[in-house]
Amino acid sequence: MAPSRFSLLTLLRQAFSGPPDLSAHWRSPAPGPAYDVVIIGAGGHGLATAFHLAAEHGIRRVAVLEKGWLGGGNTGRNTTIVRSNYLMAESAALYEHALRLWEGLSQALNYNVMYSPRGVMMLAHNVHDIAVLKRHIYANRLAGIDNEWLSPAEAKAFCPPLNLAGGMRYPVLGAALQRRGGTARHDAVAWGYARAASALGVDIIQNCEVTAIDRDRAGAVSGVETTRGAIAARKIGVVAAGHTSVVMALAGLRMPLESYPLQALVSEPVKPVFPCVVMSNTIHAYISQSDKGELVIGAGTDAYVSYSQTGGLHIATHTLDAICELFPMFRRLRMLRNWGGIVDVTPDRSPIIGLTPVPGLFVNCGWGTGGFKATPGSGQVFAHTIATGAPHPINAPFSLDRFRCGRLIDEAAAAAVAH
Amino acid sequence: MRAAFRMPAGGRIARGETLSFRFDGRIYTGHPGDTLASALLAHGVHLLGRSFKYHRPRGVLAAGSEEPNALVEIDRGGGRRTPNLRATEVALYDGLVARSQNRAPALSFDLGRINDFFAPLLSAGFYYKTFMWPRRAWRMLYEPLIRRAAGLGRAPEAPDPDRYANRFGHCDVLIVGGGPAGLMAALAASAGEARVVLVDEQAACGGSLLDETTATIAGQPAPVWLAETLATLNARATVRLLRCATAFGYYAENFIAIAERVTEHLADPDPGLPRERLWQMRAREVVLATGATERPLVFPGNDRPGVMLAGAARTYLNRYAVRPGRRAVIVTACDSAYQAASDLAAAGVEVALIADLRDTLPAVASDLAARGIRVAAGMTVLGTQGGLRVRSVAVAPARGGASVRLACDLVLMSGGWTPAIHLFSQSRGQVRFAADLGAFIPDRSVQRERSAGACRGLLDLAETLADGARAGAAAARAAGFPVPDLPRPAVAGAITPAGFHLGLCPRAAATRAFVDFQNDVTAKDIARAAQEGFHAIEHVKRYTTTGMATDQGKTSNLNALALVAAATGRAIPEVGLTSFRPPYTPVTFGTLAGLSRGALFDPVRTTPIHPWAEARGAVFEDVGAWRRARYFPRSDEDMHAAIARECRATREALGLLDASTLGKIEVVGPDAAEFLERFYVNALRKLGIGRCRYGLALGENGFVRDDGVIGRLAPDRFHVTTTTGGATATLDRMEDYLQTEWPDLHVWLTSTTEHWAVLAVQGPQARAALAPLITDIDLAPAAFPPMSVRVGHILGVATRLFRVSFTGELGFEINVPADYAGAVWEAVAARVAACGGAVYGTEAMHVLRAEKGYAIIGQETDGTVTPGDLGLDWTIGKGKTDFIGKRALALPDLRRPGRKQLVGLLTTDPALVLEEGAQIIAGPNPSPGSTALGHVTSAYPSATLGRSIALGLVAAGRQRLGARLYAQTPGGVAEVDLVSPVFFDPAGRRIDG
Questions:
Q1: Residue ranges of the domains in chain A?
Q2: Which of B120, B162, B539 lies nearest to residue A69, judging by beta carbons?
Q3: What percent of chain A is predicted at pLDDT more than 70?
Q4: Residue B8 resides in a domain
Q5: Cα of A294 to nearest chain B Cα, Å
Q6: Is residue A73 exposed (0-12), middle (13-18) or buried (19+ Cβ within 10 Å)?
Q7: In Å, how far is A222's CA from the nearest CA of chain B?
Q8: What is the mean pLDDT of residues B553-574?
Q9: Mean pLDDT for all residues in chain B
Q10: How far is CA B721 from CA A214, B457, B604, B716, B813, in A?
Q11: Which residues of A touch B80 (CB under 8 A)?
């Protein structure tokens, strides 16, 4: 049952003295009739939740149900940026918790997720940006999170492609750098969690769409109906990203979420040319280079809500306007692929992780454009919430009822521009 | 160098002109009409590149945009270096400089080749299983090594000097693909009045007809028919032919994106021309005639230079008059390879064998046998041998038996043809698997689109032509243009490409049997991935990287699907299809960005006073899209000295600020007062005519979004100002509420930000300075009290004059039409100078208002701040039943004691100016992870007060007044005392002058 351990030695042995052990990374069982916990959505967050339920809470009768293929939603569509330099104390605590888990994730899962702390640099283009970034740096420093101010020359030294030529429309006046930030290989995160969870007994059931959420007479959840039959469970965790509203509607809950297409694109692969991650909130661009050599570029969301995984061309072109302005030497590179995902956005742009008004039903959603980086932490605190029936101190502020009491955690707020 | 493989006649090249070019430093020649690939093949050069992972030598597989191997760098000099271009698409020009990629030190001797010997170790997904220990080694050791080995070409290092253009277009019928189906569609669609656009990715229209030498259409040789058809289309004014133009994306509502290469093929382009042009075309009806792509066979060593698609060989022979080798072996499962064999034999290439994988030979085989060419059925291919070029190929009976090694320098293969359904799929059309073709074809259209010809599986030339005519006529009619049916042209002498083979060849080993050539994915990798539990095709793709190279799997995807199906015991349709995403072929970033660069990237907004400020040496800052004068230094002044002088002058005499960037909205209509009453927290319904009020606008969440001044000019007319940065958002929000929440209100909104220039005249001398300039407004305190507005004239120019102050001094804001602002400004500035005042910029404006404790929305607030937090509860109209955000203000957390409140902060060291954004903490030595009490929102040196001042938001700040706290500094912490945010003139006496 336990898969063999991945290591260089094993691999060498397998490579040159067959026959290799090529057992499946995860089992593909038929759905069982009942589980202690059913997780809806086999993305990174859902799989991480299942892993932590089994590994930390001893709850191994867990099924992760996936409408399509595991890791096929935003886990496999994002721009793979990992960082924790958030402004609000609650957010910083959540993302820093995740970042600490990232640092040992490959070893914890025995799967190389290629966490690469190559540094995330945020650019300041005007006086207002400087104040906003310095506020982040001061707040992070107080919270014990690394984030430092770089002069334009220091920023250029850290990221040589940066354009400091005079007369730029958006000059680089400085940057905030989180050195521990970086990237990870998104697919490997889903596969690593799936492999580790499956080894602990978690059933990952793909091509299994949930069509109804069953309730008992007291109103508590009792199971789900799926395209592959009914499954009983007293605890259900919904981790369905852009389609969370649709799934929660099955339980009669209306969520404070709006779903938007978010686009990303890659260039053709080139030799290493871009050493870190650069983000510019002012001109809406972020960029890094994958290990394969592609420049990975994130765009903004479309202006209108939609469940379509393609966005308008003008969103992608506008992002490339900005990238070419910041890095004019990349103008001759070519866009290889442009795709979209569906992001679920809350009114305060922070996630919802916790209990719902329906007993036994838990939800983890609303990550908007930034969920990937939180994957390990989100899974761990959500597993704690499901296992104990109460939120972990880290996700307690991210409750659904904050929209009723007004205790919002507004990250986007800090970027507000006005004079 | 002599082009030994160029035939003495034939082809579509201009032999009269010889072009010279360099590849890896060596000089070669070619002719106009050549591609880089055809010109190199004419010299017998097949080795063009190295593969991504194993650095295996690679040649030319195909002849078009599907080419996975022959990627080169083209360097036009002066920063015009482009990596990863397909030699099969690069049009030759004189002086072209090309270099191979991904090799060191040389293409023929590449040290990276060592990877090939470690292939067993580097199988698909190897990196997920190792490089994990020790923990830091991934980042420090393994990743840099892998990154250096990966990547293809080198990114350019210099800014791209070329220009790119952008055009928007509309048409009635857009036809994608200028092959036989597309041309017939264009002929049919343009028979009436419809505006027709035909887009083709190649330099010449014709598609497969460009390779045709034997077929006749309507009784004419195919080349003649093609020339006449193009002449007909060119003569029609309603037809536009776009060549070298790739339709790369199909978006909603028949919106097609097209990348046109304008100068790439020219040696010395006119500098007035853009390099490329992006067309964004909206078409009433679309005809997709995108053709089909030939598939390789999968067998060991199918990637050696000299192994080529049969159809590509035919292209090089017929279109470019190039013999791709001397002695060929053809392995095929499709009849079209017989046409290639026939043409090669006729051109003097020895065809050693046609090995057909099928048990039954097609009828055409007997024709070739009759010409003395060996043809064998029921065969398979076990592998090739050779170093930098194929030397021999091993073929054997498919059902067992001894293999034979045949010497050759050319192996041609055909696994059948894959319809190009990329754009159809992007349009969200539904596809189905056609078992008789072994490929997916369009099934159900979702947009106003129809597929025609080979891209919907019709591979027979006669069928294709007829289908194109049908689709073109149907599209024109659907767009509302009656056109007749075209007669179906008779076709003779063409071979219909029947037959296919998918997946590994029988008996062939899976090792080094390449599926995705560029990414080095073998049949073995795919089988292993399936074994390791990767069954979804998207998982296989991502785990093995098949189909993820720069060709996006055009030649490989179906073989990969078939291999997954075989490995998992499923039928191909059950395995599914990966998504087709734009672009169809890679598109230059510059083309997508277009003209949007430099000053046009995001146009700078300037006020009518800008030239005056520039002439006076003002230092500017960007504020949103605006460029504003920050301060006006005199000759020997630094920033601080200039600001201190501007502040002192304003407090002591007079200051003049260009406040034109303030957002302005004219709110008009019988319900205007009711509308503003709901939009702002203030009581505005009964605001008197000629009166102003400070307005605070909240979001639904109860937090401050914007502020401004609302002046009533008439019962149904208001002049509303917003913050500079919030102008657009506020107007948008107003429109949103009017259109979606309160459509019953009769209110009209007009942005007047650009219409009115605003001159803020502030200081004790303000009235005296303005009095001589204004004759029809009584400026006397009793006649014109604070917070009122008058309409009149200044220097004869119509003005709306506000008595408002953002400095705490006696103040007026003069609104004049922007066209007159320069002249009025000059006159007012002269009066200001005469009264001992100064012009000041945004920085002094910030200091002056901070001395008075006036919050700036967006600086003191960050979207989490209520009116109460700012001490502005007094602005909320008493007894108002509703306004945006009212309900939220009643939420428990918004009424919670201990919320962060606006306070003043005085450092114990009066010379220390805090940094904005510094956190406020209770003690001098915070432990890591402790939370802040608040933060510094504004901090300045104040000349008026002779010390630094700061504003901040601090938890329960108003209760803490008098307390000593700490603020972070770059080096540590500083002591601060909490005080009232009003540092200057707390009684507010100065406002009356």
A1: 32-84+86-111+186-256+348-415, 120-179+259-345
A2: B539
A3: 95
A4: no
A5: 7
A6: buried
A7: 30
A8: 96
A9: 96
A10: 54, 63, 21, 16, 12
A11: 332
Torsion, Cα A158 A162 A164 A168, to 10 degrees, reads -150
Do B335 and B268 lie in one domain? The reply is no
Chain B residue with Cα closest to A90: B931
CA distance linking residue B592 with residue B276, whole number of Å: 9
Centre a 10 Å sphere on the Cβ of residue B342 and count the other Cβ atoms it contains.
21
Q: Give the integer Cα–Cα distance in Å for A155 and A160.
A: 8
Which of B592, B630, B706, B724 is most worth mutating to test chain A (most A CB atoms within 10 A of its CB)?
B592
Greater pLDDT, B863 or B950: B950
Residues of B in contact with A10 (CB under 8 A): 129
pLDDT at B946 over 60: yes
Q: Which of B121, B154, B586 sits opposite A11 (nearest CB)?
A: B121
Mean pLDDT of B669-691: 97
Pair B367, B388: CB distance under 8 Å: no
Structural contact between residues A322 and A278, judged by C-beta atoms closer than 8 angstroms: no
| pLDDT attached to residue A419 | 35
Q: Same structural domain for residues B908 and B770?
A: no
Q: At what angle do helices A186-199 and B537-544 cross, to 10 degrees?
A: 110
Domain of B670, in residue numbers: 662-752+869-875
Partner B, chain A 188-227, Cβ-Cβ below 8 Å: 188, 191-192, 206
Examine residue B729 and state whether it is found in any structural domain, yes or no. yes
Minimum CA–CA partner of B134 in chain A: A107
pLDDT in tens, A211-263: 999 999 999 999 999 999 999 999 999 999 999 999 999 999 999 999 999 99
Q: How far apart are CA B636 and CA B118, in angstroms?
A: 69
Going by pLDDT thresholds of 50, 70 and 90, the confidence category of residue B888 is very high
Give the model's pLDDT for residue A15. 60
Distance CA B573, CA B433 (A): 6
Give how many domains chain B has, as a whole number. Answer: 8
* Chain A to chain B Cβ contacts (< 8 Å): 348
* Class at the top of the CATH hierarchy for domain A120-179+259-345: alpha beta
Q: Which pTM value belongs to this model?
A: 0.95
Same-domain check for residues B376 and B359: yes
Each residue of B599-651: pLDDT tens digit? 888 899 999 999 999 999 999 999 989 999 999 999 899 999 999 999 999 99
CB of A125 within 8 Å of any CB in chain B? yes
Q: Are B380 and B403 in contact (CB under 8 A)?
A: no
CB B817 within 8 A of CB B758: no
B893 in A contact zone (CB under 8 Å): yes
Closest of A327, A318, A266, A324 to residue A297, by C-alpha: A266
pLDDT at position B992 is: 85
A320-334, B107-121, B856-870 — which is least confidently predicted? B107-121
Chain A residues with CB-CB distance to B856 below 8 A: 418-419
- Hey, is the C-beta of B280 within 8 angstroms of any chain A C-beta? yes
- Dump pLDDT digits (tens) for B716-753: 999 999 999 999 999 999 999 999 999 999 999 999 99
Q: Which of A68, A268, A419 sits opposite B724 (nearest CB)?
A: A419
Answer whether A114 sits within 8 Å of B132, measured CB to CB.
Answer: no
Instruction: Report pLDDT for B802.
Output: 98
- Whether B77 contacts chain A with CB within 8 A: no
pLDDT for A18 equals: 53
Examine the domain organization and report whether B487 and B533 are in the same domain.
Answer: no
Q: Are residue B287 and residue B303 in the same domain, yes or no?
A: no
How far, CA to CA in Å, does B15 sit from each of B5, B32, B587?
A: 14, 8, 32
Which CATH superfamily groups domain A32-84+86-111+186-256+348-415?
FAD/NAD(P)-binding domain (3.50.50.60)
Give the largest Cα separation in chain B, rounded.
Answer: 115
